[in-house]
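can u do me a favor
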């Protein structure tokens, strides 16, 4: 399984996902600016991966500031920690895992007393590593928990990319497929292209082919026809933010698939770690939806594909109401409608 994040000897590298599947290139993240740029440009993407990467980036940035003698006192440390957390929090608004990492670091430092900066850096590194390792464990548990729903011979449809590229472990929805294969189940996957940035055709197809999992790529609007003609057994998707009532923000197009699944009466499952649940909001109307650049829709593989001045609407996510979700699978178990998640 390909790793999206490498953290070794206090150096952070990510696989540049904008180059996939044509080029497999790891790039170094040496400071906050590079970390923010990597998240904004989707060199790293997927809710859990963004969360992990942001925690590690904060450590990298604070270490750099210390080495460059910018941090000379506790006040300097707290000031720059605060600024860095704020900056990284402004990169992408929807995936709540980013804010989980930010809040975890903030809360840990609230109680923490330290004598020198090196000690504080060590503490920060430990928190970031804990978030990173925790994500791997959560993915593993989600995969295990989903197995009672995934039977031998299942034909599964998935959307966007939810595998090892989207997390620091094996992933969520795709992670459960990996676990099913490890258990010897025969699984067939249909995956959507995922316009406009092609996380499905560029990344999920890449992961499925690398893992030798039988798969077929379709364009987003083929979903209804494929369900009608190919006897899809279930839909598995990930999530970027889940409200307390189970309303789920995920890659644009997820809502359409959930509606189609309801029409054809097939189960629609959301798989996500509890770090994707926003315990501060009651329902999906409060989830901020990222709107991205027009050029992502007006260009296709760097070629202009529309007339110059055409107006574009480009929300990166949509919200699926919880009544359309058959079950939400987290590391804690399988939850069914009606949902109410509390910390
Ligand atoms: O814009 P992206 O590529 O970051 O969107 C990713 C998704 O919507 C995924 O489905 C979601 O983050 C779950 S990843 C395990």
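np, heres the sequence
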């Amino acid at each position: 399984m390909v790793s999206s994040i490498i953290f070794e000897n206090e150096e952070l590298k990510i696989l540049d996902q904008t180059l996939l599947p044509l080029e497999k290139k790891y790039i170094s993240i040496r400071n906050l600016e590079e970390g923010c740029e990597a998240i904004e440009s989707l060199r790293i993407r997927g809710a859990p991966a963004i969360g992990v990467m942001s925690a590690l980036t904060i450590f990298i940035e604070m270490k750099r500031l210390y080495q460059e003698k910018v941090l000379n006192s506790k006040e300097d440390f707290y000031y720059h920690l605060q600024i860095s957390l704020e900056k990284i929090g402004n990169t992408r608004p929807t995936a709540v895992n980013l804010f989980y990492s930010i809040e975890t670091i903030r809360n840990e430092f609230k109680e923490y007393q330290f004598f020198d900066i090196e000690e504080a850096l060590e503490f920060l590194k430990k928190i970031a590593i804990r978030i990173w390792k925790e994500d791997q464990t959560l993915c593993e548990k989600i995969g295990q928990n989903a197995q009672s729903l995934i039977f031998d011979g299942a034909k599964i449809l998935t959307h966007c990319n939810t595998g090892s590229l989207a997390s620091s472990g094996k992933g969520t929805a795709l992670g459960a497929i990996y676990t099913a294969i490890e258990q010897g189940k025969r699984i067939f996957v249909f995956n959507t292209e995922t316009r406009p940035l092609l996380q499905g055709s560029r990344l999920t197809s890449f992961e499925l082919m690398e893992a030798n999992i039988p798969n077929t790529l379709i364009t987003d609007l083929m979903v209804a026809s494929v369900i009608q003609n190919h006897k899809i057994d279930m839909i598995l998707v990930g999530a970027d933010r889940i409200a307390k009532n189970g309303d789920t923000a995920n890659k644009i197009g997820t809502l359409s698939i959930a509606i189609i699944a309801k029409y054809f009466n097939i189960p629609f499952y959301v798989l996500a770690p509890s770090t994707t649940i926003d315990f501060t909001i009651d329902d999906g109307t409060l989830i901020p939806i990222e709107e991205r650049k027009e050029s992502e829709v007006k260009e296709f593989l760097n070629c202009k594909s529309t007339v110059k001045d055409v107006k574009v609407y480009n929300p990166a996510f949509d919200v699926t109401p919880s009544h359309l979700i058959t079950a939400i699978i987290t590391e804690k178990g399988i939850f069914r409608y009606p949902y109410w998640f509390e910390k």
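Residues 117-145 form the longest helix (29 residues). hope that helps!!
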